[in-house]
Amino acid sequence: MIPLTDSVPAAAIASPVITEEPPSIDYAVLSPMLVVFAAGVVAVLIEAFAPAARRHSIQLGLALASVLGAFVLTVLQVGAMPDAEAGMAPEEVAGVTTAMNSVAIDRPTLFLQGTILVLSFISLLLVAERRSGESAFAAQAATVPGSEEERSHVLAGSRHTEVYPLVLFALLGMLLFPAANDFLTMFVALEVMSLPLYLLCGLARRRRLFSQEAAVKYFLLGAFSSAFFLFGIALVYGYAGSVNFADIHEAIETGGSTLFVGGTATPLLLVGIAMIAVGLLFKVGAVPFHNWKPDVYQGAPTPITALMASGVLVAAFGAMLRVFLMAFGAAVADWRPMLWVVAILTMVLAAVVAVTQRDIKRLLAYSSVVHAGFVLTAVVAATPEGLAGALFYLAAYGFTTIGAFAVITLVRTHENGPEAADISQWAGLGRTSPLLAGALALFLLAFAGIPLTSGFIGKFAVFQAAVAAGATPLVVVGVLASAVTAFFYVRIIVLMYFAEPEGAGPSVIRAGTLTGSVIGLGVAATLLLGVYPTPVLDTLLPQPVEAALEPGMATEDGFTR
Amino acid sequence: MAVFADTDVHLAAPPTAATEAGGAILTNSWLLIALPLVGAAILLLGGRRTDGWGHWLAVLLPLGSFAWAVLTLVELLGMAPEDRGVPVTVYTWFAAGDLTADVGLLIDPLSITFALLITGVGSLIHIYSVGYMEHDPDRRRFFAYLNLFVAAMLVLVLADNFVLLFLGWEGVGLASYLLIGFWQHKPSAAVAAKKAFLINRVGDLGLLIAIMIMFTTFGTVAFSGVLGATGEVGQGVLTAVGLLILLGACGKSAQLPLQAWLLDAMEGPTPVSALIHAATMVTAGVYLIVRVGPIFEAAPAAQLTVAIVGAATLLAGAVIGCAKDDIKKALAGSTMSQIGYMTLAAGLGPIGYAAAIAHLVTHGFFKAGLFLGAGSVMHGMNDEVDMRRFGGLRRAMPTTFATFGLGYLSIIGVPFLSGWWTKEGIIAASFDYGGLTGQLLGTAALLGAGLTAFYMSRIMFMTFFGEKRWAEDAHPHESPASMTIPMIVLAVGSVALGAVLVFGYRFAEFLSPAIHHHEHEFDLAHMLTAPYSLAAVGVLVVGVVIAWLRYGRSAVAETTPKGNFVTVAARNELYGNTINEELFMRPGQALTRAMVVVEDRVVDGVVNGVGTGTRDSSLGLRGLQTGFARTYALTMLFGAAIVVAILVVRF
């Protein structure tokens, strides 16, 4: 591993941060997050001051514009990244840190932020969709489900435009989560991301009690996991004397603090890693920390489920990759066996349980757990190839999964009915709505990893990286698990195309422009990343120039310090 | 390891300097495929909105491809002959670690010949279809499928590796299936489509297994890698690969024993029969055999099998063609027979390759012309196909008569017309093969030539000459210009193309960098004086005369007369269907029933064991998903304990 040439000694950072000099903040590199944050604050003001009739269009316009603006700023930053040239320090090539090293903007961060912004933009389109005057959200969340008051709000056509600022705040958390370069920032980002989501989960228009139950569960378990995470931070601080990732990295290399005279503080580190891992594994939904996922995915309004299954998963894995590959990168031998076990448990148990699921959203929730297991194999690899594979996988999966949930919002049990939850109600969809069923079939085939879809390339990339890192047994388990998952994906396709519908069959509401474009984008991304993935893969894989640097000098993990 | 592409070794004959595509024309040769593919996508996705103009778009795009193919040809001709095999990497599909998968095309004389044939004849048939399908409510869908077919066929012939070739192979199969069953409201069409699909599966499976064997043996599926390394593997493997490839070719090209689908495929609209089931797709088997020539050259047993299959099919197809009263089925029998000629030539090895491809090209013209003529007749006769209800049509449809007549003269091999040049080439190559085998194969080819003269004259006389035997409501009329112009163009090709290609040995020289062609004497004087050439003219005259005596001079019955057992056998397509049914279908059904029993008793026990095990454990694990937050929290705590334990116990 490299000596950190330009970083300040650990002690300097660990010292109290109240200094006479204000910390230097590079507003330019933080601009995407600042734009989203500002938009969220303005959105709250709009709630207070804008007339109710026009509030929705203003909110939607503001949200979409700010996400788009943040994306443009992100792209500009990618353009401003220095090209790798011989003689440059690898950290300069990798990216920059700012605000007292608490935020790192490097290539992985920018890729993740860009992906999250695009996925959130698409999710916002789903959030905004209204069909026959109904959105996916409760008319007035504060009313008691089933009460007279609720009915009067429904009849009056009330709607929650607070959804938009909430999504924007969650998005801010998502953007900061993979960019955080110390554990305290990361913890703040985690909470900023999670708190709005807890609320959003409880806002479903139909089956409101169910939705509220899911929200409470998510909140309780989320708080529980945050406690683990925070406790882990404390232990690691005890070991390294710092919460900064680069310092922790260095501390692990040099043996940690001399907390105990004549002894070693390694137990602090190991338990700390374990606790932090619990917090992160909860967010990505790995077994045995996955229980919340089926309940929450099922109960939440489908557009929010789509956001959680795509953007939040990307952010959580982004943070996890940075923590394990960079901060704990030198302790890889210690944490690798643990992730082996978790990855195997995740892939096997989730795939097996998914087989008997009847509810389509629960099925996709378990499928999301299995996919988290696949990405974990790339984390286990702990190589630049693994990082590239995981990033590609996350982007590919995000687009596909949003598309799949968009399809779900359209298929109803009957005219103006609730979403067709039970998969038996999907029988015969291929005949009544061939295009919609075709799109879903494509998404399911991508989940299953069939060639010419993005899912195949993603699986190939992560498994290849895992094999190269010597985790072949893990890949064998992964391939077997993906065979099991293929079974239940294909079963839905068979059901849609070859089964006789029960009664009149599912009723499909006509896709509005917004939902239609979401499905179209999902199809396009799934196909494009499957047929022509090279540009994206090339961007993610380590540049050849970097390899030409002295071997000892290259950042082995691809992150900035 | 480069799986698909291997640019170190190159396909073309030694000495090969693998030139990277220089000009923009070659590097962008993916446009050839992309244009019709875009057309298919627009028409299929655009739906009813494109009804008004879709067919014109579908005509223009293959024409664009044709123009590009012509430019490519010009570019190739401007290069030194040995440089004319140009690999074009369209893009790298993905590269992970040391494994690179490229999607690559190979532009060489062989593939560009096919590209020109497919886009040229294909465009003409598209134009023809504008008129032919004018009253069909689903014309847009028809054109979408036609464009899809053209794109898939171009993928097949331009691919530089077996996997991409297989993709095109399956693509044309799909398009063929969709188009045979285009009038799916007719049960016969639906059944025919299914039959074509099933029989083709058998062949496709053969090809797929061959590709797998090649991949395991050579470690690559690139043409260059496989064909350049045939000297390094045992004969057994090569023979197996060759026979499996032959099986694939038999399925696609309707050669014995997988011929039964082609006659039924005539249920599709006539332009489809002309394009797919006469001019292009059914010749894909011949293309494949010529393309993998080095494999067959290293496996003589497989090569001889190819020639024998070709000879047998050319006779069987001709016999069937003699007895059918349905004009399209008679022509389909003829197609089988003519492809038999090509297969025979391809099975002769290097001396026959150029002859096979030349005949393939001229056949593409005259047979497409004949089918379009048949379609024009049907168009004027209320879709009647029974030749016993035609007769005397030459006055009612003069243009159709003239173009069909020229195609007819060409296919039976009247000297100096296209068909004569190329068929004579095959007969000459057969006799030059040498030995008893050469004599037998040559005799079969000669016999086939006589039969061809007979059945084609029979079609000609029954349709255009003699008494009117029309149905009462028939009012035959000449077809519109959109249909006659393509027929005229094809007729010109039927007359002149052969001389252009064969005379002066042009085509064989052009092809020689791509195929392992041996010099062999083929001069005009020899062609006119060799005994077998004279014999060919002799059997031609005999065939025509017999047909004249039976169908020209004497009246033709309006209903099919009872025939002798040969005629009955030929009418029944030599019992091909019965054989299939007795040999495969019934035992297959019996086997299926037996398997069901075994399945229920034995396999299910095991599979259900695994399946039930999975389901039970799934149900059991579902029990953990209680829905209570407290249980979940406990699970998490338990999980955290495991995680801590794994980390801490390690030291």
Short description:
By secondary structure, chain A is mostly helical. Chain A has helices at about 10-15, 25-50, 50-80, 90-95, 105-130, 150-155, 165-175, 185-200, 210-240, 245-255, 265-285, 290-300, 300-325, 330-355, 360-380, 385-410, 430, 435-450, 455-470, 470-500, 515-530, 535-540, 545-550, and strands at about 95-100, 105, 410, 505-510.
Question: Can you walk me through this structure?
Answer:
- The complex is a heterodimer of chains A (about 550) and B (about 650).
- Chain A has one domain.
- The model of chain A is unreliable at about 1-15 and about 545-555 (pLDDT under 50).
- Chain A contains 23 helices and four strands.
- Chain A is globular, with a radius of gyration of 23 Å.
- Chain A is mainly alpha-helical and about 550 residues long.
- The longest helix of chain A is centred in the middle third of the chain and has 33 residues, at about 210-240.
- Chain A has a two-stranded antiparallel sheet with strand order 1-2. Chain A has a two-stranded antiparallel ribbon with strand order 3-4.
- Chain A has helices at about 10-15, 25-50, 50-80, 90-95, 105-130, 150-155, 165-175, 185-200, 210-240, 245-255, 265-285, 290-300, 300-325, 330-355, 360-380, 385-410, 430, 435-450, 455-470, 470-500, 515-530, 535-540, 545-550; strands at about 95-100, 105, 410, 505-510.
- By secondary structure, chain B is mostly helical.
- In chain B, strands 1-2 form a two-stranded antiparallel sheet.
- In chain B, helix 6 packs antiparallel against helix 7 and helix 16 (about 350-380) packs antiparallel against helix 19 (about 420-430).
- Chain B is globular.
- The chains are: A mainly alpha (about 550), B mainly alpha (about 650).
- The interface of A and B includes residues 278 and 288 of A.
Show the helix and strand layout.
The complex is a heterodimer of chains A (561) and B (651).
Chain A lengths: L9 H5 L12 H23 L2 H29 L9 H5 E4 L4 E4 H22 L19 H9 L6 H14 L6 H19 L6 H33 L4 H10 L11 H19 L7 H8 L2 H26 L4 H24 L4 H22 L2 H27 E2 L16 H4 L1 H15 L5 H15 L3 H27 L8 E2 L4 H19 L2 H7 L3 H5 L13
Antiparallel strand pairs in A: 1-2, 3-4
Helix pairs in contact in A: 2-3, 2-7, 3-5, 5-7, 5-13, 5-16, 5-21, 7-8, 7-13, 8-9, 8-13, 9-10, 9-11, 9-12, 11-13, 12-13, 12-15, 13-15, 13-16, 14-15, 14-20, 15-16, 15-19, 15-20, 16-18, 16-19, 16-21, 18-20, 18-21, 19-20, 19-21
Chain B lengths: L23 H4 L2 H17 L7 H24 L8 E11 L2 E9 L1 H24 L6 H20 L3 H19 L6 H32 L4 H5 L7 H19 L7 H4 L5 H10 L4 H8 L1 H5 L2 H24 L3 H20 L3 H31 L12 H4 L1 H15 L5 H15 L2 H30 L16 H22 L3 H6 L12 H6 L1 H23 L11 H7 L4 H47 L6 H21 L2
Antiparallel strand pairs in B: 1-2
Helix pairs in contact in B: 2-3, 2-5, 3-4, 3-5, 4-5, 4-11, 4-16, 4-21, 5-6, 6-7, 7-9, 9-12, 9-14, 11-16, 12-15, 14-15, 14-20, 14-25, 15-16, 15-19, 15-20, 16-18, 16-19, 16-21, 18-20, 18-21, 19-20, 19-21, 20-24
GO molecular function (chain A): NADH dehydrogenase (quinone) (non-electrogenic) activity; NADH dehydrogenase (ubiquinone) activity; quinone binding
Keywords (chain A): Cell membrane, Membrane, NAD, Oxidoreductase, Quinone, Translocase, Transmembrane, Transmembrane helix, Transport
Subcellular location (chain A): Cell membrane; Endomembrane system; Membrane
